[in-house]
Write a structure and sequence with these properties.
two-stranded antiparallel ribbon, 2 helices, mainly alpha
Length: 76
Amino acid sequence: MTLRGQEFHHNLKETSMGEFTEKARSAANITVGKCRAAAGRVMGSSTMLSKGIAQQRKGKAQRFTAAVKGALGNKI
């Protein structure tokens, strides 16, 4: 982008859309997983408890992926 004949560069770190969506998905999976695990504990359902814990782990993995995408920027 040029500004009065001079080259204008943004110095702000750009957040890629992939990073933003991964962060949103990770937060949702962690929250839903916690709710599902809590419901499994209350109801005594080991299946629901294990699915909730698995969903929390999936959210944590997505959070890591978002951090990697943020560190690498739009290179991936």
